Amino acid sequence: MRVKAGAATDIGLVREANEDGYLNRPPLYAVADGMGGHRGGEVASALALETLERGFEREGSEKLADTVREANGVIFERGSRDREVAGMGTTLTVAAAQEDSLHLVHVGDSRAYLLRDGELKLLTEDHTMVQEMVNEGTLTAEEAHDHPQRSILTRALGVWGEIEVDDLNVPLLEGDRILLCTDGLTATVPDERAVEILRDTPDPQDAAARLVETANEGGGIDNTTVVVLDVEADPK
Ligand code: MN
Predict the structure, then answer these.
(1) Which of 96, 235, 107, 233 is nearest to 178 (CA)?
(2) How far apart are CA 168 and CA 76, in angstroms?
(3) Cα→Cα distances 119→34, 89, 113, 195, Å
(4) Which of 20, 40, 91, 233 could in theory staple to 225 by disulfide, Cβ–Cβ 3.0 to 4.6 A?
(5) 98 CA to middle of ligand 1, Å?
(6) Ligand 1 center to residue 18 CA distance, Å?
(7) Is 3.30.1830.10 the CATH classification of the domain at 2-232?
(8) This prediction's pTM
(9) What are 21-37's pLDDT values in tens digits?
(10) How would you write the pLDDT of the chain (236 residues) with one tens digit per residue?
């Protein structure tokens, strides 16, 4: 099985910098959404993606969770000694394509979705306060979506010396489409609209670009970053 990828990122219409980043280095794909004053957000997401790429080259998919923990340490250490970027952090959602599955490692409120047979399924769980409230039953998913504190993260890379990471393996089928995205997409584009675009846009690069455009049409209140992965049969 092989993967055909597309990716797009945009600053949006409101923010002064693009603190998001992505990685499109087959078989490794990721999105990161940095946060922090001055240039902190940009530094955090870039450090996460660089450390991820190098660690993956060295250790492969098997040690992916360790590599993400290493990235946490690198960002935390830099934030501790450089006052300009103190307190910076980043989300990181990583997908490594394997023979017939996807290895996902995830921290924060960026997301991975699976589009299969026209249905979009969320694969990751947001590490946010509102998601915890949804899990406890004190908030509905609809209330969480528009909650003023929906961006408060319970986990992010680089903020604490130790980090818990979600580590999952998703079996893939030919024809599956994977979407990795930062919260700039999910905050502005309803799931139903995202599904329409993903269903109606065969080329993954076109689909990624259309999703980011649609986020800007929806107000562009945040940076938006999207990676689309199509699972195809190996060439005969
Ligand atoms: Mn964001």
Answers:
(1) 96
(2) 24
(3) 29, 32, 10, 7
(4) 20
(5) 28
(6) 9
(7) no
(8) 0.97
(9) 999 999 999 999 999 98
(10) 899 999 999 999 999 999 999 999 999 999 999 999 889 999 999 999 999 999 999 999 999 999 999 999 999 999 999 999 999 999 999 999 999 999 999 999 999 999 999 999 999 999 999 999 999 999 998 899 889 888 899 999 999 999 999 999 999 999 999 999 999 999 999 999 999 999 999 999 999 999 999 999 999 999 999 999 999 988 77
Q: CB-based contacts of 179: which residues, under 8 Å, 6+ apart?
A: 111, 112, 113, 114, 115, 120, 194, 198, 211, 226, 227, 228, 229
**Ligand 1 centre and the CA of 10: distance in Å?**
11
Residues in the chain: 236
CA distance 178 to 203: 13
Q: Which of these, 44, 16, 23, 3, lies nearest to 226 by C-alpha position?
A: 23
Give domain limits for the chain: 2-232
